[in-house]
Amino acid sequence: MALKITFLGTCACDFSPRLKTDLRDKLDKDVRRSSSMLINDTLLLDCGTHTINSLDILKIPYEQITDLLITHLHDDHFDVENIKKLALNRHTPLRIWVREDATLPEIPNTQINKMTLFERYLISDNTYATGMMANHDESAFPQHFLIESEKKSIFYGCDGAWLLNKTYYHLHKRHLDVAVFDCTTGDYEGEWRIGEHNGIPMLRVMLPSLKSVEAITDKTKVYFSHLAPSLHKSHDETEKIAHTLGAFVAYDGLCIEA
Questions:
Q1: Which of 60, 61, 99, 134: disulfide with 160, CB 3.0–4.6 Å?
Q2: How far apart are the first and last CA of the chain?
Q3: 116-160 pLDDT, tens per residue?
Q4: Cβ(222)–Cβ(181) under 8 Å?
């Protein structure tokens, strides 16, 4: 059974002012919203600054979403007011999954589930999630996710740079169907953010290495997300670069199947 994946937002935190004016009600490949991804219309990864706006534009009812997985607590990924809107007026509490050492504010009509890194959790409907170590600001309790369902597997790695040792080995021979990588910075060297974000030169090294250990294969759909528009060329130009690496550039509203 195929998994439906919808990119609700694909931006790092350098948001365009146009999001407050002429693009409040429509999506644009070059004016990205805060990074968030939806699986089968029920499992949401991150709810940040613009996630509710993206759901409204795409006409996706909030009540369909049963579970929210949090990559980390920076407000462009974890917006308390937007999560309150997501949890409002539903018959059963919104289940929130977060790293076990994170402390969350009280949010009405939610059920908090703490995750131990590298433990596999049944989320819903034979869908499992594993949180893995992420190379990002530790004070935000970061984690990458491996989502598995019906012999399908998805890696979601926004935010974070490279792959930490245990995460790298956890992905060996996974033969991922979809892999989403942080690509905050563009195709140039001398980037000071390498301790917490990927750039295209880093992904140019990483992808063949991940193929060598069968984490990804020629059949894996690889997407770059969490792009900072101020550090990249246009979407179309960046897409051409990504294609030389066997990858695609995600954009807000993109819907694919795994």
A1: 134
A2: 9
A3: 999 999 998 789 999 999 999 999 999 999 999 988 999 999 999
A4: yes
Nearest to 115 by CA among 148, 139, 142, 149: 142
Q: How many CB atoms lie within 10 A of CB 253?
A: 18
pLDDT digits (tens, 9 = 90+) for 67-97: 999 999 999 999 999 999 999 989 999 999 9
What's the pLDDT score for residue 27? 94
Buried b (16+ CB within 10 A) or exposed e, 237-247: ebbebbeeeeb
Q: CA-CA distances (angstroms) from residue 179 to 89, 94, 105, 165, 174?
A: 34, 26, 31, 18, 11
Burial 48-74 (b: 16+ CB within 10 A, else e): bbbbbbbbebeeeebeebbbbbbbbbb
Domain containing 184 equals 4-257
pLDDT the model gives residue 24: 83
Domain count, the chain: 1
3-state secondary structure of 50: coil
CATH of the domain at 69: 3.60.15.10
Residue 154: beta bridge partners?
147, 178
Cα–Cα dist 2/55, whole Å: 21
Report the Cα 164 to chain-centroid distance in Å.
17
